[in-house]
Amino acid sequence: MDATGPQLRRLVDEARSADPDAWEAIYRRVYPRLFAYARRRLATDTAAEDAVSETMTRAMHKIQSFVWADVGLDGWLFGIARNVVLETYRSDARSHASDPATLAEPTAEGLRAHGWPVSPADPATRLMALVEHDLIRKAFARLSDHEQELLELRVVAGLASQDVASLTGRRPGAVRMAQSRALDRLRTEYEELSR
Fold first, then answer.
1. Burial state string for 32-54 with b = 16 or more CB within 10 A and e = fewer than 16
2. Which residues 6+ apart lie within 8 Å of 26 measured at CB?
3. Radius of gyration (Cα) for the chain, nearest Å?
4. Which among 127, 140, 60 has a CA at the least distance from the CA of 97?
5. pTM above 0.90, yes or no
C-alpha cells in the first residue's frame, strides 16, 4: 500500500473515527518493521513488543493530531516509536542493546530472502551464513549510535529520507549523505573484520 495513497488515507480517516478494523490493518501493516526497529534498539523481544504496543497506544490517542503534510503515516509511527525507545533507555539503561550480538540469529527464511541457498541438510552453508551474520553484527556495533539509528530508520524501517529528516531534525540531503557515509563505514569495518 502506498504511503500516502487513497487506501491509506481512507484507513487513517477510519482510524480517526475509532474503527477497530482500521487500527488492526494499520497494526498489521507496520508491526514487522516497528518490531525490527525496536528489537535492534532494545535488549529483549519482550521490551521490543512492549515498545510497539506503547507506540500503537499512543498513536490511537494522538491520531487526531496526525497531519499528512508533516510525514507519512509510517514516519509518524516511527517518530512515536523512537520516543518510546528513548524513554525506555532513560527508565532502564540495561534494556539498551548496545551489543548487536543480542540480535536473533538469522533464520533459514531470512537467509533465503537475501540470496543464500539454505537447506536444512546443508550445514556448511548454514555455518557460512552464521559467520557472515556475526561479522555484519560486529561491524554494525562499531558504528556510532547516530549511524546505527540512521541505518535502522532508512534500511530496517524503510523510511524515506524526508521522513528520517523530520524525525531527526536534519535535512533530507544531509540524511542521504549521512546514510552513504554510514554504509561506507559499515563496509570498511566489515572488510577489516573479514581479514
1. ebbbbbbbbbbbeeebbbbbbeb
2. 11, 12, 15, 59, 73
3. 18
4. 140
5. no
Question: What are the grid coordinates assigned to 161, written together?
Answer: 529520507
* Alpha carbon distances (Å) from 181 to 177, 185, 188: 6, 6, 10
DSSP symbol at 170: -
CA–CA gap between residue 189 and residue 155 (Å, rounded) = 18
C-alpha span between 180 and 190 (Å, rounded): 15
Question: What cell numbers appear for 67 in the block?
Answer: 497531519
Q: Residue 76, Cβ neighbours under 10 Å: how many?
A: 22
Q: Is 86 exposed, middle or buried (0-12, 13-18, 19+ CB in 10 A)?
A: exposed
pLDDT tens digit string along 31-66? 999 998 898 888 888 999 999 999 999 999 999 999
Closest CA to 71 of 163, 161, 168, 152: 163
